[in-house]
Design goal:
about 180 residues; alpha/beta; Rossmann fold; 6 helices; about 40% helix; globular
Length: about 180
């Protein structure tokens, strides 16, 4: 959506599935993201889970000596899906606090494939940018065209006059994890 310009990013919020999905590329990209961010010494802030793509990102970052902060609501701790082998685990009261804490601790966001929760987090952070609550770069990893329908829908929103180009300036679609490097200083 916008041109690549290196930015000062020290921490990235990761939003992705608590499942791995059907395409093995999703898991491959999740592990590449964890490895890449650890190698670049970028802190990861995410939902605190040990399962699915989110668990893979965290595991790989920890293997690479990265710093991973998980923020998880009490409800999910009761379900015993919290990641116990990360740098820092913060337990909060609910999903709203979780998202607020993740947003406040991250300089940017990276969205990988996921379900309703991932889309909720994506649209909230995009909306907060639009409302100038914050001004964060948002990277969407379009693994194997996972977000092609979303891209088409964004074009439809523009065409129908519900958003304009300035609403999209901070959104960057990537096809591979390595493309993220062109945006980092």
């Amino acid at each position: 959506m916008s041109q690549s310009t290196p930015m000062a990013i020290r921490s990235i919020a990761i939003f992705c599935g608590s499942r791995t999905g059907k395409n093995p590329l999703y898991s491959q990209h999740a592990t590449e993201v964890g490895r890449l961010l650890a190698a670049k010494q970028l802190k990861i802030v995410y939902g605190g889970g040990s399962i699915g793509l989110m668990g893979l990102v965290a595991d790989e970052a920890m293997k690479g000596g990265g710093w991973v902060t998980g923020i998880i609501p009490k409800l999910l701790v009761e379900w015993e899906v919290e990641h116990r082998a990360i740098s820092e685990l913060i337990v909060c009261d609910d999903m709203h606090q979780r998202k607020l804490k993740i947003y406040s601790k991250a300089d940017a966001a990276l969205i990988l494939p996921g379900g309703f929760g991932t889309l909720d987090e994506l649209f909230e952070i995009v909306t907060w940018n639009q409302l100038t609550i914050h001004d964060k770069e948002i990277f969407i990893l379009n693994s194997n065209g996972f977000y092609n329908s979303l891209l088409a829908h964004i074009d439809q929103l523009k065409k129908e006059g519900f958003i304009d180009e300035r609403n999209l300036e901070k959104i960057h679609f990537l096809n591979t994890p390595i493309e993220l490097l062109t945006y980092l200083s």
